[in-house]
């Protein structure tokens, strides 16, 4: 009899700890999402896509492949009459910072004017428009093609240095990054992710959160909702968060930084795209010091 009562009591405790409200508490969801992103990074729109798309794991990311419903006509109607938004944040971004003449001198070795515009095209160099071109191994044109990329310059300011952002498919990132580091002689790492130091109390709280996934919060927790949340995973699908993300050249001062998943990228298609942007984005007020 005592054994039966003990079994019933255990079943009641399990049912209490697995209630939907406890499982869907925000602090538990963040820790659970981090655990599920150890192999494949999620985009910011992952939850929205996961509810409506068949997901696939490619290039270190979890991406929406095909819709669960027949929405092709709706997508076509949006592209032709309204606005369709695509999340391209899985595309990788490499940032080059340094003197303009030094950047253009070395970038001319990995592209050719015979294929179209280059990095020094006037209307692209001003920063007003985005350009696209094909990259090749240094001094190997027309052989040794690396792949297509898009780029945009940051508009000029009072500083001597310019900033250039190059966007590429994640399958091309490692090859292009290796060639850029070679031509600019950026061998020394400048930026390495170092976890923020936490006090012993904070560390214990975070460990308690991870270990108590799906369990009901203890009643003696005085802080309640103010408990320390588990931080979101840092990094992207093509780079480990503890690897270097920035490299500098001691000879030219050029800095190459990996900005993948730090700068989100969305594509708007359709005649009402500009109207959507106008209603969404508001110009910031200029502040002079």
Automatic annotation (TrEMBL):
Lineage, opening ranks: Eukaryota, Metazoa, Chordata, Craniata, Vertebrata
Leader sequence residues: none
GO cellular component terms, semicolon-separated: nucleolar ribonuclease P complex; ribonuclease MRP complex
Residue span(s) of domain Pop1 N-terminal: 3-98
Official protein name in the record: POP1 protein
InterPro entries with a match to the protein in the record: Pop1, Pop1_N
Biological process (GO), any one: tRNA 5'-leader removal
Top-rank taxon, per record: Eukaryota
């Amino acid at each position: 009899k005592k054994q039966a009562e003990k079994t019933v009591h255990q079943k009641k405790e399990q049912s209490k700890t697995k209630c939907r409200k406890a499982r869907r508490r925000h602090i538990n969801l963040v820790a659970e999402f981090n655990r599920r992103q150890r192999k494949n990074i999620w985009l910011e729109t992952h939850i929205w896509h996961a509810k409506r798309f068949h997901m696939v794991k490619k290039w270190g990311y979890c991406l929406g492949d095909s819709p669960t419903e027949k929405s092709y006509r709706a997508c076509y109607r949006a592209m032709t009459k309204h606005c369709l938004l695509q999340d391209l944040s899985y595309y990788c971004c490499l940032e080059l910072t340094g003197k303009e003449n030094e950047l253009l001198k070395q970038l001319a070795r990995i592209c050719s004017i015979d294929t179209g515009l280059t990095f020094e095209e006037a209307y692209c160099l001003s920063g007003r428009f985005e350009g696209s071109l094909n990259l090749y191994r240094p001094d190997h044109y027309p052989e040794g093609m690396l792949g297509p990329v898009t780029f945009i310059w940051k508009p000029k300011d009072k500083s001597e240095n310019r900033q250039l952002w190059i966007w590429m498919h994640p399958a091309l990132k490692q090859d292009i990054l290796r060639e850029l580091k070679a031509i600019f002689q950026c061998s020394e790492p400048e930026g390495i992710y170092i976890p923020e130091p936490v006090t012993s109390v904070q560390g214990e709280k975070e460990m308690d959160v991870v270990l108590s996934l799906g369990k009901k919060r203890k009643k003696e927790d005085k802080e309640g909702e103010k408990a320390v949340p588990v931080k979101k995973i840092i990094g992207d699908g093509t780079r480990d968060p503890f690897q270097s993300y920035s490299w500098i050249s001691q000879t030219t001062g050029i800095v190459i930084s990996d900005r993948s998943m730090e700068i989100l990228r969305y594509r708007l298609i359709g005649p009402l795209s500009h109207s959507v942007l106008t209603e969404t984005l508001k110009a910031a007020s200029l502040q002079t010091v």
